[in-house]
Amino acid sequence: MKTKSITYAALFCMMGAVACKSSGSKTTTDSTSVDTTVVNKVDTTKKADVKPKGAAPAWAPDIKPEMQAVIEKLESFGDKPIPQLTAAEARKNHTATDAVMGVMKDFNIPKPVFNVDTMGKDIPVDGGSIHARVYIPKTGKSNYPVIVYYHGGGFVIANLDVYDASANVLADKVGAVVVSVAYRLAPEHKFPVAHNDAYAAYNWVVDNAASIQGDPKKIAVAGESAGGNLAVNTAIKARDSKIMLPTAILAVYPVAGSDMNTKSYVKNAAAKPLDKPMMMWFVKNYLNSMAEAKDPRINLVAANLKGLPATTIITASIDPLQSDGMMLTDKLKAAGVTVDSKNYDGVTHEFFGMGAVVPQAKDAETYAVDQLKKAFGL
User: Fold this and answer.
1) Which residues are tagged catalytic?
2) What mean pLDDT value characterizes the chain?
3) What is the domain partition of the chain in residue ranges?
4) φ and ψ at 68, to 5 degrees?
């Protein structure tokens, strides 16, 4: 992906998740204070309705017009398909965040403003340390609930900047400290490194919440795509390690199964920005062998899910992972877990966080925020 400053990542859409939210470029500064003058600029010119240029694609005849406009913009960059690239090359591709920024510019859509400050933290893990960006609402409180957030990218691509707006929205709208975790990526760090890093970050927050203005008794986990998988796994490991369970789980189109012949994989095999070949590429890069796809940390639908906290699952209809999320919902309910779920029609993988452009994304953001606020008793 093209390197972009925290200003753009924070102000524009928060696209994230497995598919095209790539970027292995170095994470930029964690402080947003230098961007105040940019954040507060207001464009008073009337914005135009977001409309696509062409007909709906064959792989998604029912795609919503705003979603289609984002996909068109993404494809206009002309990047090579990720399955044809090395991980290092794939991290340089444009992302869905870039596409949303382009659409916002084309249609004169104002930049979101978030009443949030950020700072960086380094968290010790086996073999070194990982970075986290901490988002703190600027409302004058000293004891906020905490959300430990895991970005997407198939365990291979993306970084904190690409998912910056997701964290901003959750921090600003929930009124919570968000700790966005830069877990180590594959193939440089194979399975289960990302999973171990995710748990280490949660464990660190449990022990250090007060140091970041957080309430140590109210800590949720959240993530998109691969990050949704990490959020659920972190809760499972917390349960098994007998440390404090998360208050709640938010999993947005999570990687939750090893079967790539589900109904949604078949229907959306050629979808964009995430398709079946890309998912196969992610698996090959992260796993040491294909046999590990059956590991319950990857194949969550086969995991022991009993005793987990209240969980919210969001899925999209134009997404190979739609069935994963729906099956996980059913498995959680069967295990006695309180589950609330919502599917969004006419939108693709990556749609969550596109609230500035896609109406369904705005609804999904509000839904996620409301669920977390309810869990925190806000």
Assistant:
1) 225, 319, 349
2) 90
3) 116-376
4) -60, -40
The domain 116-376 is placed in CATH, from the list 3.40.50.2020, 3.40.50.920, 3.40.50.1820, 3.40.50.700, at 3.40.50.1820
pLDDT tens per residue across all 378 residues of the chain: 333 333 333 333 333 333 444 444 344 467 543 332 233 333 444 557 999 999 999 999 999 999 999 999 999 999 999 999 999 999 999 999 999 999 999 999 998 999 999 999 999 999 999 999 999 999 999 899 999 999 999 999 999 998 888 999 999 999 999 999 999 999 999 999 999 999 999 999 999 999 999 999 999 999 999 999 999 999 999 999 999 999 999 999 999 999 999 999 999 999 999 999 999 999 999 999 999 999 999 999 999 999 999 999 999 999 999 999 999 999 999 999 999 999 999 999 999 989 999 999 999 999 999 999 999 999
Question: H or E stretch including 135?
Answer: strand 128-137
What pTM did the predictor assign? 0.90
CA-to-CA distance for 323 and 317, rounded, in angstroms?
Answer: 9
Over residues 208-231, the pLDDT tens digits come to 999 999 999 999 999 999 999 999
Secondary structure, 3-state, the chain: CCCCCHHHHHHCCCCCCCCCCCCCCCCCCCCCHHHHHHHCCCCCCCCCCCCCCCCCCCCCCCCCHHHHHHHHHHHHCCCCCHHHCCHHHHCCCCCHHHHHHHHHHHCCCCCCCCCEEEEEEEEEECCEEEEEEEEEECCCCCCEEEEEEECCCCCCCCCCCCCHHHHHHHHHHHHCEEEEEECCCCCCCCCCHHHHHHHHHHHHHHHHHHHHCEEEEEEEEEEECHHHHHHHHHHHHHHHCCCCCCCCEEEECCCCCCCCCCHHHHHCCCCCCCCHHHHHHHHHHHCCCHHHHHCCCCCHHHCCCCCCCCEEEEEEEECCCHHHHHHHHHHHHHCCCCEEEEEEEEEECCCCCCCCCCHHHHHHHHHHHHHHHHHHCC
